[in-house]
Design goal:
- The chain is mainly alpha-helical.
- It folds into two domains: 23-99, Orthogonal Bundle (Arc Repressor Mutant, subunit A), CATH 1.10.10.10; 105-248, Four Helix Bundle (Hemerythrin (Met), subunit A) (Up-down Bundle).
- 65% of the residues lie in helices and 3% in strands.
- It is built from ten helices and two strands, in the order αααββααααααα.
- Strand 1 and strand 2 form a beta hairpin.
- The radius of gyration is 20 Å and the shape is globular.
């Protein structure tokens, strides 16, 4: 077994993260550097989330976000009960920066929305099959809070946070943390984009239509119908995907909210 040159006491040593940039991005950079240098060869197991968090002095959420991003682009793989491993047939290191740019980049927003849609479809199907009464109560309560905020004419920033909480409640009930973590990254990326001034009118005009979509998703999940949940999620995202295409690639509608705002 290859041991890293900077390994002490049996644990790989990473540096404390104190750069001003986003902490999860720095975590990604350090892990990629360890893979590139051979300190983390293909097939090797990474330190636990707690160990990475302690060494880099960042929250476990930052570590979890970084690991999920690397899993999403094929650098890492998660084995249930065993942790995160460097993928044996991973992407060549030279391609990693470009792929991370695509994940975060505005120019690839359409593909990010496509990925978000497919992941949430899978999550909704799982919840329809697995959700218990307590999970359904959490999802229903988050939807009620969103409805109350819409009636109170909430601003777009607060609406998107409550909207994110509704979708997060579905993801948490799927009992699949790697998929939920990957979804959280995509949700954050798309939410940040939709907060830009040019998109705010679209979100504002689509709130009530989107809420009807949310209710349809919850109803499908509550009945345990995975196929109906699948369809409800795709309808929900349909309007926003057309809007995004019209904004970025000159395709689709003029941006009016006719079938869900997709957020």
């Amino acid at each position: 077994m290859i041991k890293p040159a900077n390994q002490r006491g049996g644990l790989m040593q990473f540096e404390k993260v104190d750069q001003p940039k986003r902490k999860s991005a720095v975590v990604v950079e350090q892990i990629l550097a360890a893979i590139s240098s051979g300190e983390l060869p293909r097939g090797s197991r990474l330190p636990s989330e707690r160990e990475l968090s302690d060494q880099m002095h960042v929250s476990r959420n930052s570590v979890r976000e970084a690991l999920a991003a690397l899993q999403l682009i094929g650098i890492l793989e998660t084995k249930t009960g065993a942790g995160s491993f460097v993928a044996v047939s991973g992407i060549p290191n030279a391609d990693v920066p470009a792929m991370l740019d695509q994940l975060r980049g505005e120019e690839d927003l359409v593909k990010v929305w496509e990925a978000r849609t497919e992941i949430e479809v899978s999550l909704a199907r799982l919840v329809a099959q697995r959700a218990d009464a307590s999970c359904l109560t959490r999802i229903r309560r988050s939807l009620e809070k969103l409805a109350e905020a819409i009636e109170a004419n909430v601003d777009v920033d607060d609406y998107l946070l409550l909207n994110a909480a509704f979708h997060a409640s579905i993801a948490s009930c799927a009992d699949n943390r790697p998929m939920a973590d990957a979804y959280a990254i995509l949700e954050e990326s798309t939410r940040a984009e939709m907060l830009r001034v040019p998109h705010r009118a679209f979100i504002r005009n689509g709130m009530r239509v989107s809420q009807a979509d949310h209710e349809a998703i919850l109803e499908a999940i509550a009945t345990g119908d995975a196929d109906l949940a699948d369809r409800a999620v795709r309808i929900h995202y349909g309007g926003l995907e057309r809007y995004i295409r019209s904004q970025f690639i000159g395709d689709g509608q003029d941006g009016s909210a006719e079938e869900g705002d997709g957020s």
